[in-house]
Amino acid sequence: MIEISGLTVRYGGKIAVDHVDLTVQDGEKIILMGPNGSGKTTILKAILGLVPYEGHVKIDGEEIVKLSRREIARRVAYVPQIFYTPYTFSVREFVSMGLYSVVRDWLSADGVVDRAIMRVGLSDLREKSVNTLSGGELQKAVIARALVQNSRYILMDEPTAHLDIGAVKDVLDIVRSMEDRGVILVSHEVHPLNRIDGTLILLNRGRVVYRGNKRDPEMEEKLRDVFGVRVNDANGALQFDLS
Amino acid sequence: MKSRGYIFTFFLVLLTFANTVISLYIGPVHIPIPVILENIYRTLIRADPNWTVSTIIFYVRMPRIILAVLIGMILAISGLVTQTIFRNPLGDPYLTGVSSGAALGAAIGFLISPFLVPFLAFFFAMLAVGISFLISRSGGEIRAEILILAGISVSFLFSAVASYLIYLKEYNLRGVLFWLLGGLYGATWSEVYYIFIAVLIAIPVILAFRKELDIMLMGDEQAKSLGVDTGKVKTVTLLVTSLVTSLAVSFVGIIGFIGLVSPHIGRKIVGESHAMLAIVAPLIGANLLLVSDTIARSTPQGEIPVGIITAFIGSPVLIYLLFRRRRM
C-alpha cells in the first residue's frame, strides 16, 4: 500500500502541494485530476523520491527517503510524459531498461520484455528505433518499460496527453487491464474517468478538493468548479462542454 | 546494430595495426616496412637486433606511436562520458576545467623548471576539476548543469592567471604555446606505461557502468525512476575520466577535437549503446590521433603541434555531422 499523509512540497518559497493525504491499495486505480500547476506531477515525484518533501510517503510501511533508488524502482514504476526521444535504441532495448532494478542480466529476461511489448501491442515494432515511433507508440513503449519493472504500483503522468483518440483508448485499455497493480494516473482530461473504474481525486492549488468514485452531479459540479468549464454527462460518459 | 558493432570493432583493430606499421615506416630516416617487420622479429623473438634500426623503431617511433594510440583512447572515452553525463553533444574531456588547470600548471612549470611541467600540469588540472566538482555538488549529488558552468568559470579564472604568467615571461612563450597545442614529441616508455595503466582503468570502469550510462541518456529523472543511482554514476565516471585526462594532458598537452569527434563518429556507426561505444569510440580516437600525429611530425616545415592537425581533421568531421543532423 502507498500511504501519503500531510504531504507538503515547496519549490523555493512557493507551496506546490499542501498537506495532501492519499492511499493506494493493491490493484486500486486513482485518477488524479486538476488544472495546470495544481500539484499533480509533484505528488508523483514525491512518491518517487525525486523532490524533497514534508510529511510522510510510505510504500509497504517504509518511508521512501529511507529506500535506495533500486528499492524504490522495485516497488513503484513511473511512466513520464515523453513525446520524442532522439536515440536509436530499438523498442526491445528501450523496454529492457525497465529491468535494471529487477535483474542483473538483461539478455536472460528477453521473454519478459517480449511479453510486455506484446501486451501493449508493439510486437511488430520491437526491432524499430524508438526515434521513429509516433507519440502514441512511444507512450506504449514507456508503459511496457514500466510493466517489466514488475512493481506493484505504476505512476503515470498524463499518459494520454497529445495522443489521438484511438491511441488514448488503447493506452487506457492497457491501464484497465493491469488488474493486479495499483495505479495513479495523472490527467487533466476526462477520458480516464470514462474508461477506468477508479477513484477521482481532484486537486486545486496543491490541495485535495474532492475525492470519490461515483459519477454523480457532485463530481460534475466539482470538476466544473476546478476547471471553470461545464461538464456534460452524455449517456454515462463525461465530457467538458466548450460550446 | 550489435553484429555491425562487432564487425566494425574488428575492422578498427586491424586499422590500428595497419596505421601503426605505416607510422613506424614514416620518419626522417627511411626504413622499408619489410626491414621494420624483420627487425621487430629479430629484436623480440631472436634477441639479435640491428641496433641502429632497432633504436629508431623501439626508442624513437614506437613509444610515440603507442602513446598516440593510448592518449587517443583516453580522450575519446572521456569525451564519450562527458557527452552522456551532460547530455550535451558538444561535451569534450576538458569541460570540467582540466585544460585550463593543466595550462596554468604548465605555465608555472615553464616559469620554474620545464622538468616540473607534467607534475604541475597534472596537479592544477585535478585542482580545477576538484573546484568545479565542489561548486556543483548539491544534495550529495553533482548537478550536471551547474558543473558545466562551474567548469567554464574555473577555466576562465585559471586561463586568466596562466595568460598573465605567460605575459610576464614572454621569452618562454613559444614553449608554452607549443605545449598548449599539444604534442607527442619526446614520448618515452615510462609515459606509455602510465597511460597504459590509465586506459586499463578507464575503459573497464566505463564498461562496468554501460547500462547506467545508456539509461542516463533518457535524463536524470527517468534514470532515477528506473533505479539508477545517478549521483554515484556521475561521481565515479567523471572522476575517473577527469583523472586519466589530466594524466594524459600532463604528458602531451592539450589536444583538441579527438574527445569531441570520436564518440560522434562511433554513434553514427554502432548507435548509442555504451557496451559498444566504450570500445569503438576509443579505437576511433586512437586512429585519429595516430594519423594526426604522423602527419604532424612529417610536414615539410618539420614538426608542428598535433593540435593543429586534429583541429584540421576534427572540425570538418564535426561540421559534416552537424549538417547531417540538420537534414534529419
Shape of chain B: globular
The portion of residues forming beta strands of chain A comes to 25-35%
Helix content of chain B: over 70%
Number of β-strand runs of chain A: 12
Query: Helical element count of chain B?
Result: 14
Number of strands of chain B: 2
* CA distance, first residue to last residue of chain B: 20 Å
Largest interface, C-beta within 8 A: A-B, 28 and 20 residues
Proportion of residues in extended strands of chain B: under 5%
Largest sheet of chain A: 6 strands, mixed
Order of SSEs of chain A: EEEHEEHEHHHEHEHEEHEE
Oligomer: heterodimer
Q: What Rg of chain B, in angstroms, do the CA atoms define? A: 20 Å
Give, in spatial order, the strands making up the sheet with the most strands of chain B: 1-2
**Outline of chain A:** globular
Continuous helix count of chain A: 8
Strand order of the largest sheet of chain A: 6-7-8-3-9-10
Low-confidence stretches of chain B: none
Mean of pLDDT of chain A? 87
Query: Which structural class do you get from the secondary structure elements of chain A?
Result: alpha/beta
Describe the structure in your own words.
The complex is a heterodimer of chains A (243) and B (328). Helices cover 30% and strands 29% of the residues of chain A. With 243 residues, chain A is α/β, with parallel strands linked by helices. In chain A, β11 (230-234) and β12 (237-241) form a beta hairpin. The termini of chain A are far apart. In chain B, α5 runs antiparallel to α6 (144-168), α5 (117-136) runs antiparallel to α11 and α13 (274-296) packs across α14. Chain B has 14 helices and two strands. The model of chain B has no long low-confidence stretch (mean pLDDT 88). By secondary structure, chain B is mainly alpha-helical. The relative contact order of chain B is 0.16. Chain B has helices spanning 2-25, 33-44, 51-85, 98-112, 117-136, 144-168, 173-180, 189-208, 210-216, 220-225, 230-252, 258-270, 274-296, 306-327; strands spanning 137-138, 141-142. Helix content of chain B is 77%, strand content 1%. The chains are: A alpha/beta (243), B mainly alpha (328). Chain A binds chain B through residues 45, 48-50, 52, 68-70, 72-74, 76-78, 80, 85, 87-90, 93, 97-98, 100-101, 106, 145, 149, and chain B through 1, 139, 211-212, 214-215, 217-218, 221-222, 224-230, 271-273.
